[in-house]
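Re: folding output
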Amino acid sequence: MAKVEQLASALQKLYAKRSALDKQILDAEKKLVAEAKVPAKPAAPAKKPAGKKAAAKKSAAKPAKPVVKK
């Protein structure tokens, strides 16, 4: 009977370890779910060089309409 009691005791210890690991796994899963629910911060838009494009916009002003006399 001593052998059976040793095996039962060893099983109880293993179940206790398993329970502790299950708790750790659940905690890690909760953290991952919470992190996944948080919306990602939008990346800062890349700054465009203002040199050529700004000058092109200024020079591309609407042409004046010709005045037609009747």
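--- second protein (sequence, then structure) ---
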Amino acid sequence: MNEKASHRIELTVNRDAVAAPVHHAAIACREIIDFCFNSISSADLSQRPKAASSFFRFDPKGPDLNADGRRALYESWILAKAFQDLMRGVRASLEEAYFVIQLISQPIQIRSATTLADLFSPFRERAGKKKFPDLLKLVNASLTEPLAFSDAFQSLQDARNCLEHRNGIVGKIDAGDGQAMKLTFPRVKLFYFRNGEEIEVVEGEPVDAGDGKGEVEILMRLEVRERTIGLGERIILTARDFDEIAFGCFFFGSQLTLRLPQPTHV
């Protein structure tokens, strides 16, 4: 009686691919924000920009904006797009993490005619159908140390919605308590310890551990910075604000990769 032959195939998982989507988004968005905000700051916004072509142009009349109104319009549009791309990058990295965890958590038996696309498809479909909090919860359950990012991701979503649909002006739909919109943006906190007390690194302030050794270990931790915007007020973020948010998302991707579990089978 002939026994069916079985063969073992080993796949090498590139863990850096988990962080790649959010890393790319953070770098690209930060660069574009820097360029656009610098350009806006030096431009004459009292007039509409010149047309790229004067041969034929669809040119309807719109609201007569002054410099402040045009600046608000440009900045809100650019920030909405940047937040959208950041969220897409964070989501894609989390889906990649889920995919890797499923692959390395247990041996997988397949038929000989199965392609890699056939093997990977169910995992990617399951990840794509899950809401962000549920997906993060599933991934966190397998990480060596969980990552808290649901509130930050929701704030990115809330800010994008307000910027895109209401030109950044906080409306009742944005204000959870009816009075103000509370956002908790991701940030990376730099800190060190002085006599057992945690001290945040602040620009312009000397770093001193107070032990007389002259050496200080700078540590990093992913946190959230809370921002409250009142009803009827506009979400105002500088390029520096966005730089902090983008770096927080970048750091999230790095920590996600570092905390992936080791394979449970060989």
